[in-house]
Amino acid sequence: MRILLTNDDGIFSEGLKLLADALSEIAEVVVVAPDREQSASGHSLTLNRPLRMKRVREHWYAVDGTPTDCVNLGVQGLLKEKPADLVVSGINFGLNVGGDVTYSGTVSAAFEASMHQLPGIAFSQEVEEGFSFERAARLAHDVVTALIEGQLPSDLLLNVNFPSGTPRGVRWTRLGKRVYKQTVIEKRDPKGRKYYWIAGTPEWEHEVGTDYDALLEGYVSVTPLHLDLTDYRGLEEAGPLRERLEALAVAVGEPR
Ligand code: MN
Prior knowledge:
Layout: E1 2-6, H1 14-23, E2 28-34, E3 53-57, E4 60-63, H2 67-78, E5 86-93, H3 105-115, E6 120-125, H4 133-148, E7 157-162, E8 170-172, E9 183-188, E10 194-199, H5 211-216, E11 220-224, H6 232-236, H7 240-252
Parallel strand pairs: 1-2, 1-5, 2-4, 5-6, 6-7, 8-11
Antiparallel strand pairs: 3-4, 7-11, 9-10
Helix pairs in contact: 1-4, 2-3
The protein binds manganese (II) ion.
Manganese (II) ion (MN) is lined by residues 8-9, 39, 92-93, 106.
């Protein structure tokens, strides 16, 4: 069993170190992680400049790019001859729930695993009173151990979040919905020019069955995700919008 481990908080983050230690008990762990923090980098891939990978110590490599870059360099480069069986990302400092998974570099690394037909798991830790990366690393170890007892499907993609206190159990959840409005703060720099800062504290809909709801009740949340973003309900519903668009497609092909 070989695990490619990455994160978005950077190679020197505590969550990565403790997760690497915990997973080393059950697998060979190769760390390929960003050389600095890349939180909220989403599923960003670096194509406009070369990337450098630096060996930090045995089985640890720092990349001057995003988590997605790290998965690519790990899968297609470093581990090309001895492929990883699983890509793990985290443990992130802070939750990654609901639609925020699209901002998350941590979760995007797991999405990238899917692009390479590898199972991927993202781990994130709520940062409130009582939070512990040590406990999260133990739990992540248990989650991965439970998963590798069975056959790991290549399209397995799990988003796992740990509550800040001692968990009451594990819940299988769907993504929740954010209700807060992200605010943009406008200020002026010393030269009188405007600058902007995106801010705001996330708030989530309290809906039963969601990731946020499970965490709120003190449970570990496990959400199965997939890369296919198709809205299958929308695809099935042959509404007037579809008719108008398909009629337009015919007109587009006509000479004008
Ligand atoms: Mn992060």
